[in-house]
Amino acid sequence: MGICSSQSTLPQILLLGLDNAGKTTFLYADKWDQFDPTVGFNYEEIHLRQIVHVGVWDVSGKSTLRCLWPLYYRNINFVAIVFVIDAEKEERFAEARRELQILINEEELRETAFLILFNSRFEPIFDLEELTARVGLDLFHKTIKWKAALVDLMEESEDFKLALKWLGEQITN
């Protein structure tokens, strides 16, 4: 198996977002209390919150490594992308918006479901509607399947559970 291929028969999810947004927290919060930011990528086959068994590719969001993202989605058939945005860093919304626009315009991802998670450990500055507008989710193609949720990735809130339920439905349908 090459670095950007998968022999697994499991549905594959690509976990993306800017650096330090909470991607690795999404992957490991129910396993460990502490972990380091991703330097390259992590791959885990997990039972996603008791919904569906999947392979998850957690790829670094560091600016110098984002150019590698296409190597993953052009070589692996992903059923979903989970894009994590730090809801507490307004100064990075424009950067996240640019990266999302690139992804939604990729031909290889036209059939891929997008779950956008706005991660906030504290009281959020903006509500979900305002966050959605600030990162341009209203500009998504009408044919793109997407859902956004405002969550704390360290907690199992009702909104987080509903977002994961939606993700599971996209994977199993």
Automatic annotation (TrEMBL):
Positions of Mg(2+) binding: 24, 38
MF (Gene Ontology): GTP binding; GTPase activity; metal ion binding
UniProt keyword terms in alphabetical order: GTP-binding, Magnesium, Metal-binding, Nucleotide-binding
Xref: PROSITE patterns: ARF (PS51417)
Tree of life domain: Eukaryota
Sites where the protein binds GTP: 17-24, 61
Keyword Repeat assigned: no
PANTHER family: ADP RIBOSYLATION FACTOR-RELATED
Name of the protein in question: ADP-ribosylation factor
Organism expressing this protein natively: Blepharisma stoltei
Lineage: Eukaryota, Sar, Alveolata, Ciliophora, Postciliodesmatophora
